Amino acid sequence: MQYRTSATLIQTFVRASACAMMLFGNLAIVSPILAEEAPAAGGEAAAVVKHEHTLMDRFVEGGWVMYPITLCSVALIWLTVDLWMRTGFKKMAPEAQVSQVQDLFRAGDYVGAYQFCKNSNSAYCDVARVALSFVGDGEDAVENALFTELNKVNSTITTRINYLSVIGVCTPMIGLTGTVTGMMSAFATLGTSGVGDPSKLSGAIGEVLIATASGLFIAVPAFMFFYFLRNRLQVSMSGLQEVIGALFRKMPYSHLKDAHVGEEEFFAALPNWVNGGEAAAA
Fold first, then answer.
1. 141: which residues sit within 8 A by CB, 6+ positions away?
2. For the residues 227-243, what does the mean pLDDT come to?
3. Contact (CB, 8 A) for 236 and 89
4. pTM for the complete prediction?
């Protein structure tokens, strides 16, 4: 009985040893395979990481809509820089010009002030020049001239600022057009090639996403600069109106009655029948 038990234990040990040897042998075979596959997978991942899209690649993937969007971006930069300079109060009313005109007003040299404003280039000098040309017609005529010229300056710059709003509205529409054309291309590719050629389908979808993103990328700053420059213009126009109003306070209109300070030509004359009647009476 004891002999049978010992034999049974020996057989069990032999079988366990054989199983262990088989297991280690399989691991030894599988380990080199895994070791070879791991660098390959790592190499593929590294290759994927190293492949980066440049700006030109994105531009080409965006399709034809990237050309008008690029033009809109150039116009956005140019308008922003130009309007930033135009809407500044120091640009509209330079301190040197304001001081010079004030000195000429203090000296009573209104003709000299008109000539100085005519030869200077600023909104302040333009408004002062037009108002000076009406001083011989009275206070109401000067105030109407000031109001008209200030509105002219404001409307001229506001029109240029509104172009930023146009860019902000049009660029998403251009991007949406690229989205529609890209989706049409994607569905056409899906209908002809099916899902067996994912590269063509992904290219069309990339055109859709890049076109939409590019339009929004231009539209957002366009609206931001539109509101910012519009508020900046309002502040500058208020300051310009204040400076011009102070210039014409206490104007001696009684001494300037029928005076012709400017160089504008008058076209209105006496009615021809008055001259004819005087000639007939003579």
1. 134
2. 95
3. yes
4. 0.69
